[in-house]
Structures are given as structure tokens and as C-alpha cells.
Amino acid sequence: MLECRNIHKHYGGIVALKKVNWKLLPGEVHALCGENGAGKSTLARILCGITMPDEGEILLEGHPVAWTGSQTARQAGLGIIPQELDLFAHLSVAENLAIGNTRLETSAWVSPRALHDAARPLLRDVGLDLDPAWPLDRLSVSQWQLVAIARALGLDAKIIFMDEPTSALTDDAVERLFGLIRRLKERGVTIVYVSHKMNEIFRICDRVSVMRDGEMIGTDACAATSIDRVIQQMVGRAVATIRREKVSMADETLLEVRAVSTRKLRAVSFTLRRGEVLGVAGLVGSGRSEVGRALFGLSPITGGAMTLEGRGYQPLSPHDAVAHGVALVPEDRQREGLISGMGIRQNVTLASIGKYSRASWIDRDEEAVASTDALAKCRTRFADQELPVRSLSGGNQQKVLIGKWLLTHPKICFFDDPTRGIDIGAKDDIYRLVGELAGKGLGVIWVSSELPELLANAHRILVLHEGRCVGIIDAATATQEDIMRLATGHHVPLS
Q1: What is the C-alpha separation between 99 and 86, in angstroms, rounded?
Q2: N or C: less crowded end of the chain, CB within 10 Å?
Q3: Contact 123, 177 (CB under 8 A)
Q4: b/e per residue 258-286 (b: at least 16 CB within 10 A)
């Protein structure tokens, strides 16, 4: 269906792709794996006409093609759902679905009714029951992901590249996506599934290709390989199993939340002990991120009370929260965490710049020392701190974001889905880092869409349903079924 021969791409002195040869078959679901920075997204962008290769040839159904841009690739039947979603928050859902879709351009005048009518079946296919006229900024990150998938479906593509399509989806949304992929496969559509989630790959994909350091390492049928072999090919080293020995937490209560309500939370109560990793689970819209927003002074508290180290705590702003030792690593690092055009060093020290400034002058040497230390603790890979942060892979961008908040020397860290869309090696680094933070007596609150991750790394798990706390369970004895039973509102007593 699609073939690339000797594709080569470099950015300055950095080689992104080295003579890559690869083939896709009609109607297959083909996994493309590799650590962040391995070249997966670069290859996908080249094949979809977004980026031009330095060398090499692309063949579509046996015929050489030379894209002049993404529009020519779309017209030929190639669609892509990028990891960093290229959607427009100020436009409506329907308008986002229409952008770049020449099939919807029937006249020079836009008919809102026709646009909404065209959008509804696409939204229905991905399980979104909402008004196409809604502005996109009303939606959650997971709903943005589904809108991006719906947009690709609207192109009626023959080949669809899905770059981390489930990174922000809960289990029920993932199941709907898998059903959709099966229906597309039956129609002969080829799916390239770029993901770090091995269980998903071996469940939904026919073949798997592995990239490392810009090279194609190999391709195997999923039935003829294993998760361990794929991981070994990806990272070139052994990676610890996800379940690890947890640091013992202290008896001292660090944070107490009593019947706290906001616009989205309803009388939520829990405690966080010093050295504890408290997981937070729940479906989309359950209020997981809202807990962090309330702790960080982003969502006004309308009822209840909090105490931090035995003293009353009600942050009036993020600045107030930071001053009290609370840090928030947000779910969306692009929109809320980093300034992509700024340098790596500047991003790392952004939340603590007052420590390195005298009057209106910044001590660059002191700032550089602090930045280097934070980046080293997070095991961040980079060539030069002065490069823009957007030049890093997704996993390394996430480490920069974490390092930024560690420089504030927090007492409590709220991690909102910190491993979303990053590779296995980077995940392992973050697991280790969280364990080290807990070992130093910090309190960690960890939101995750991946239940095995919470069970492996948390001491206890707080489960939310429609803004309410419906249970706090011991991670050592709980199962995924226990969590989902509570998260879906089935309050059956746990054994």
C-alpha cells in the first residue's frame, strides 16, 4: 500500500532518520514503536507530506509520489492524528473537523447547519455526544483527542497514522476506538498505530516495526514476537518491570482535605501522608484534574477546608500555592506546562526565577547550575540547554516540566497523567523519580489513565465518580476491576 525507500532526514547536526526502508500492507494495523526521539513522528510526518525528506523515495500503491505539502498527501488518501494535537481552541468542534477537508468545501459560503450535519456522524463514530457548535476550549484533553480522530475519519483516508491516539483516553474510550479501528480495517483502511502501550499493540495490531536512533531495527508479526523482545529492541537495555517495591510512608499527615467542593467537585475528602504516593483514578469528567486545580489555587473552593502541615490552607492563586510548597505538573504540557519557543534552561527555571534574580537582573551562572542539576535529576537528554524546548522529544519535554517544579522545592507534587504519550524508558525514569521524591518525604498525588501504573506505584488510590470520592483503596490488594467498579458508579463493597 505504501513504501518508503532510503528515507533520510537531518536537522542541523542531528540525524533524525537514517536510510529508512519500510512497507505497509493494505488493510493492516501496523504498530510503529520506539523511544521518544527514535524518529517515529518524523517518519510519519514525511510520509504524510508535512515534512520534506532530505533523501529517499515514497511509493503509494506501487507508484512514486512526491508530496508538495500535507494537502497533496491528504488528497491522495493519507491522514494523520499527531501526538501534539493541531486543533484550534477558539473555533467550534465542527469547524475543527472541517479544516483541511476539501470534501466539505462545496461552496465559497459556509453553512453552519450543513457543517454541523456533516460533523455529527463523525463525532458519533468516536463516541462523542456533544453539540458540534461548542467551542473546542470547552472540552477536556481526552475529548480533544477524540475530535482529532473524528477529523481524520472525515478525510475518508486510505491510510491513517495514529500517533499515541489513546494517550489521553480512559478505558471506555479506548474500547470505542478499538471497535472503530476494526471497522476501518474491514473497509480496507491501513492504520499505522504509533504507541508505547505494549498491551494495546499486541491486542489490536497485525505487525510491529521498531525504530531506534533514527533507524528501522526490524518488523515482525505480532504473533511471532513478544513484548519483552519489542522493548529490548526499542531501548537496547533492560527496563525494570512496572511493579516495584514502594517506599514506606510516614504516619505524619501532610495534607488533609475535608469535604472540599468546587464547581466540579462535591465534598471530596482525603488525607495525604508524608512520603505517600496517592493515586487518583476515575473516568473522563470525574474530577481528577480538578483536585489538582483546587490544591493549586486555579479553581475557587466553594465549600470545605484544607490543612497543610496542620495549618489552614486555602490558596488564592498558583503563586500562593507555590509559596506554600505545592506544585502542579499539568496534564497538557504544551498548553499549560511549557513555553515551546523558549530555551530548555528558561523553561526549567521559570517557576523559580526569583531565586536567581537580583532586582531586575538574572544571575545566569546561578540559573544554569540550578537548571543543570534539575535536568540531571530527571535524567533529561538534550544537546544544549539553550535550544528551544520544542526541539526535545515528548518524554524529555515532560522531564523538563517536572524539573521546573522540583526547583520550587515543593512539599506536595500533584502529577496529572505525567506519563501520557511518553516511551517506556522515560516512563521508567519517572517511576524511579517519584519513588525518590516519596523517599525524601514529599507527598505525591498521581493522576493516571493507566490503572496498572497506579497499582504498581501508589500506596493508596482515591477513586472519583462525577466529582465525588467514592472510595480510597489499598493499591497492594486492589485490582483494576475494583477500581473500575467504583469509577463507573457501581459501589459494590470491596472484598
Answers
A1: 10
A2: C
A3: no
A4: eebbbebbbebebbbbbbbbbbbbbbbbb
The DSSP annotation for 202-256 comes to: HHH-SEEEEEETTEEEEEEEGGGS-HHHHHHHHHSS----S--PPPPPPSSEEEE
Lowest mean pLDDT among 82-91, 153-162, 278-287: 82-91
- 171, amino acid identity: D
User: What percent of the chain is modeled with pLDDT above 70?
Assistant: 93
Distance between CA 380 and CA 392 in Å, rounded? 9
Other CB atoms within 10 A of residue 120 CB: 16
Output the nine-digit C-alpha cell for 83: 501526538
d(CA 118, CA 317): 42
Under DSSP, the state recorded for 336 is I
With cell 515534512, the residue in question is: 51
- What is the chain's mean pLDDT, rounded? 85
DSSP assignment of 395-456, as one string? Answer: HHHHHHHHHHHHTT--SEEEEESTTTT--HHHHHHHHHHHHHHHHTT-EEEEE-S-HHHHHH
Percent of residues, the chain, with pLDDT higher than 90? 31
Please give the model's pTM, rounded to 2 decimal places.
Answer: 0.61
